[in-house]
Write a structure and sequence with these properties.
mainly alpha, Rossmann fold, three-stranded mixed β-sheet, 3 strands
């Protein structure tokens, strides 16, 4: 054994003895004085300093014995952070939920649950967390970092209601809140136009289209020209009766026409088309189309930055300063998801890898649930 090992071993043993001695002494006190705060805090300090796994059990005992709601919330938060640090999502989720129950407005608990619920695709719970994070507070000053994060949270809330919960009335209100914060948000305008169209709310749809230039695109005979006539209030475009055999429309429009809407804005009617899809699914195509986002991403502190909430994110900083429009970043996110879906659909190995990944995640989740 070299000289370095012969010195470090006795020190380790001595430290281990000291930790065990403190645990033994504090345990003796707790047998006489159940829940003694001084004994518990001393034991926690020693165990934390030694990185001893018994710390979690001690904190659990302390939290159960505590009669102070504030102290109990603080202890539960420490337990939640321990589970988060070891990447135990199931345990972390349980601990953070306990923390929020003890302290409903705790910002760390709300932020952690936001991420965990989204990762677990628990959409109703995520919607509740986003509502609490928002709280109906006034928007921060435009262009500030807080404003950029707030708009991102509002858009996420609207997308959860719209795409996952299919709650159209609440989604419409949420998208209007996004418009209040960013009046030119393409994401919000497109979502509201779709929701009003699906709900046959033509007056509201005309108002949304009045804020932008819209193009009606779709297959032949689906009713694009009929919609235009509804918008303008008279028969601007020629239409035909539906077919008697299948009640489907007939191909009529054979040219493109720009129409001014009575309430402002313009709409373009087009002939029917067969299919729309991304032309270039390569990384080069994305880099050329979103060169501004790609250049900013190269300046982020972390190489694997997702441009959502990470510190030192150059993309979010550019959104906050107004250098990069929020709509631009949302479009980049959307196309990234579409490109990933196209790649999985056409690449057998990638599709197989994706399926295997989610199967493993599912098995791990079930195994953790059984161990609880």
């Amino acid at each position: 054994m070299n000289s370095r090992s012969s010195v470090s071993l006795p020190v380790f043993v001595a430290n281990r003895v000291n930790v065990d001695g403190v645990v033994y002494a504090c345990g003796a006190v707790l047998e006489l004085l159940t829940g003694d705060r001084d004994a518990l805090e001393r034991m926690e300090r020693v165990l934390e300093k030694a990185n001893d796994p018994r710390l979690e059990q001690t904190l659990e005992y302390h939290a159960a014995a505590s009669t102070s709601p504030a102290e109990r919330a603080k202890l539960l938060k420490r337990l939640a952070k321990l589970a988060t640090d070891r990447q135990d999502d199931v345990r972390a989720l349980e601990r953070w939920e306990q923390t929020m129950h003890a302290s409903p407005s705790d910002p760390d608990a709300l932020a952690a649950l936001r991420e965990l619920y989204e990762r677990a695709q628990r959409w109703p719970e995520l919607a509740q967390i986003l509502e609490r994070l928002d709280g109906g507070r006034p928007m921060p000053p435009a262009g500030s970092p807080d404003a950029a994060v707030r708009v991102f949270d509002l858009e996420t809330y609207a997308q959860v209601l719209d795409q996952h919960l299919k709650d159209s009335p609440r989604a419409i209100k949420a998208w209007h809140r996004v418009l209040d914060a960013t009046p030119k948000s393409r994401t919000a305008l497109d979502a509201l136009a779709r929701l009003y169209r699906e709900g046959s709310k033509w007056r509201e749809l005309t108002d949304i289209l009045g804020r932008q230039a819209a193009v009606l695109v779709g297959s032949s005979g689906v009713g694009k020209s009929t919609l235009v006539n509804r918008f303008v209030g008279h028969e601007q475009m020629a239409v035909k009766e539906v077919r008697l055999d299948d009640d489907e429309g007939r191909h009529t429009t054979s040219h493109r026409e720009l129409i001014l809407l009575p309430g402002g804005g313009v709409v373009i009617d087009t002939p029917g088309i067969r299919e729309l899809q991304l032309w270039d699914a390569s990384e080069g195509g994305m880099s050329e189309t979103f060169s501004d986002v790609e250049e900013l991403a190269g300046e982020c502190r972390f190489n694997d930055c997702t441009h959502t909430r990470e510190p030192g994110c150059a993309v979010l900083a550019a959104v906050a300063s107004g250098e990069l429009p929020s709509d631009r970043l949302q479009s980049w996110f959307k196309l990234q998801r579409e490109l990933r879906a196209i790649a999985i659909r056409h690449d057998h190995l990638l599709r197989k890898e994706e399926t295997r990944k989610w199967k493993l995640i599912g098995k791990e989740g079930k195994a953790k649930a059984r161990r609880r």
